[in-house]
Design goal:
alpha+beta, Porin, 3 helices, 55% strand
């Protein structure tokens, strides 16, 4: 029995490697976030950025495929006006670049020249670049800058849902909606500086948005 199981695993592994492809992926990211607070009624406006990286696709039986990917993801948002705060931020632009590892699972129908598919991809990542640009009312802004630098969450995790099409087994085009879970800023790191502003911003939700990707597989 053990020999049969070993042989079956070996056959499946060989078949998987035979249907594996290395790829280069990249594309357009439109991301935004929102503020969950009674003090501010505004939403952050979206920012158009990009993503790029590498992927490894392994075709499985029954129309399934797994496609892990390692990418550099730029995400951000703009808040142009803050209401109900007399002394604090009047605007904020935030951007962050993450090294992100995704574990994509696809299911599709092979139509020979094309393979339409659905996909789900959990991911996690770590911020390696970023910037915060803010305008502050009645203040030099130094204290607020220090707050945003120290309170920003570096670790991200979330998921992507969407679909796409693979053409002649070498070109992929996909559109997904992504959602970063957790908060953009860490409430445990909040100081006493600018209590009204901090109270409004500590509940800022993390990034979500749409990604359009093109991949070339070899």
């Amino acid at each position: 029995m053990k020999k049969i199981l070993t042989l079956l695993v070996a056959v499946l592994a060989t078949a998987s490697v035979a249907h594996a492809q290395f790829g280069i992926i990249g594309g357009f990211t439109s991301s935004k976030t929102s503020i969950d607070t009674k003090n501010i009624s505004e939403n952050f406006k979206g920012v158009s950025l990009f993503h790029a990286g590498i992927a490894y696709k392994v075709k499985l039986p029954l129309g399934f495929a797994i496609q892990p990917a390692l990418t550099y993801e730029m995400k951000g948002a703009n808040l142009e006006q803050v209401k109900s705060i007399n002394e604090g931020l009047s605007s904020l632009s935030t951007k962050a670049g993450y090294i992100q590892l995704g574990a994509g699972i696809q299911w599709g129908i092979d139509l020979l020249v094309a393979r339409p598919f659905l996909l789900v991809q959990p991911f996690f990542g770590y911020q390696v670049t970023g910037s915060e640009k803010l305008n502050v009312l009645n203040s030099s802004g130094e204290e607020y800058n220090n707050f945003f630098k120290t309170a920003k969450n570096k670790l991200e995790y979330g998921f992507e849902l969407g679909g796409g099409v693979e053409v002649v087994k070498h070109i992929q085009v996909s559109v997904v909606w992504f959602k970063n879970l957790g908060y953009l800023y860490d409430g445990d790191k909040i100081t006493d500086v600018g209590a009204a502003v901090i109270g409004a911003y500590k509940d800022t939700k993390n990034y979500s948005g749409i990604k359009v990707s093109v991949g070339i597989f070899f």
